[in-house]
Amino acid sequence: MKEKNLTIPIIIVSIAIPLAVAFLILGPATKLNPGFNTGSLPLFHAILNSTTAILLLASLYFIKNKRIQAHKWANLTAVVLSAVFLISYVIYHSTNPSVKFGDLNHDGVLSADEKIQAGSKRYVYYIILSSHIILSGIIIPFVLFTLQRAFLGKFDKHKRLARITWPLWFYVAVTGVIVYVMISPYYQA
Question: How far apart are CA 5 and CA 17, in angstroms?
Answer without folding.
Answer: 19
